[in-house]
Specification:
The complex is a heterodimer of chains A (120) and B (186). Chain A is mainly alpha-helical and 120 residues long. Chain A contains 5 helices and no strands. Helix content of chain A is 71%, strand content 0%. Chain B has 2 domains: 89 residues, Rna Polymerase Sigma Factor, Chain: A; 96 residues, Orthogonal Bundle (Arc Repressor Mutant, subunit A). Classes of the chains: A mainly alpha (120), B mainly alpha (186). Chains A and B meet through helix 1 and helix 2 of A and helix 2, helix 3, helix 6, helix 7 and helix 9 of B.
């Protein structure tokens, strides 16, 4: 028997032996352990404010901005009544809005850092 | 049976059912790779878990061009090798002499032959044992083993040649050659 034939025969024998021996039996509960670990890793703190709140808030701010601009051009064509604008323009309202935006941004930043997916 | 592509899509959506099916489908393969390298059931289990977690985390990077099992094997092999390195425990070919020196009966049952094979493989360097397992058990080509291990083709061939030679030497003394030759020859 030449070398190539012998090698072929040995390869066939080894393959048969490996196939007969088969795989190591994986421990029971491996899938559960993987699921538990992957769920722990994917369970992140979601932001308190969903995306829809940001869109609504953003639209409201744009609306206010447009209203303020339109008031500057002609008070008669203002989109929002003057008392409302006055109230919104007060320092208390401005400060409250600023704090809300700041807290919202902090919430968003913390959620982004933990890798959570934004709801909504 | 759900095909790999659908399972992967389910896993990307974090569907627990798909994750469970994927793990169930490949756990023996991944665990066997880990066992060949680490040779310790506890370490192998941990390595198998880590491999699946890594695979799930990186699943979006699997482009679907190659076989999914090759991609998963690659993660399993590298995770096990990395764990082995961190454990600072390396296999030694010297162990082969110790194993062979022990007086043993010629194995006649599949379980005994399996035990013999495991002992012979355990006497090889872990990476060589893993490569032999990929070649003979998984019937992977050299090119696929290159992808899985990250070694060069010539390095894989050298390891295969060397491991095969050592394995045959170790097994010839113990296995009833004629018995399984007759059984498996054409």
């Amino acid at each position: 028997m030449d070398d190539a034939a012998r090698r072929l025969k040995e390869d066939r024998q080894l393959r048969a032996l490996f196939q007969e021996a088969g795989y190591h039996q994986a421990p029971a509960g491996l899938a559960d352990a993987v699921l538990a670990k992957s769920q722990v890793r994917s369970r992140k703190e979601a932001p308190l404010l969903p995306k829809i709140c940001w869109w609504t808030g953003g639209s409201f701010v744009v609306f206010l901005l447009l209203a303020w601009l339109s008031q500057g051009q002609a008070s008669t064509t203002s989109l929002v009544p003057a008392p409302v604008l006055e109230f919104l323009g007060s320092p208390w309202t401005t400060a409250a809005l600023a704090v809300a935006v700041l807290l919202g941004a902090l919430d968003l930043f913390l959620a982004r850092r933990s890798g959570a997916v934004l709801p909504g | 049976m759900v095909d790999d592509a659908n399972l992967i899509a389910g896993c990307l959506d974090r569907d627990p059912g798909a994750v469970r099916q994927l793990v169930d489908r490949y756990q023996q393969l991944v665990y066997t790779v880990a066992m060949r390298v680490l040779r310790d059931p506890m370490d192998a289990e941990e390595s198998a878990q880590d491999s699946f977690i890594k695979a799930l985390d990186k699943l979006h990077t699997f482009d679907g061009r190659g076989r999914f099992s090759t991609w998963l094997f690659s993660i399993a092999h590298r995770t096990a090798i990395s764990k082995l390195r961190s454990r600072k425990r390396t296999g030694s070919l010297d162990e082969l002499a110790d194993t062979s020196a022990e007086p043993m009966e010629s194995p006649t049952t599949p379980d005994e032959r399996r035990e013999q094979l495991d002992r012979a493989l355990a006497a090889l360097p872990p990476e060589d044992a893993s490569i032999l397992s990929l070649f003979y058990l998984e019937e992977r080509s050299v090119a696929e083993i290159v992808t899985i291990t990250g070694l060069t083709a010539s390095n894989v061939k050298v390891k295969l040649h060397r491991g095969r030679h050592k394995l045959l030497t170790a097994l010839k003394d113990h296995l009833n050659d004629e018995l399984w030759t007759m059984r498996h020859e054409d």
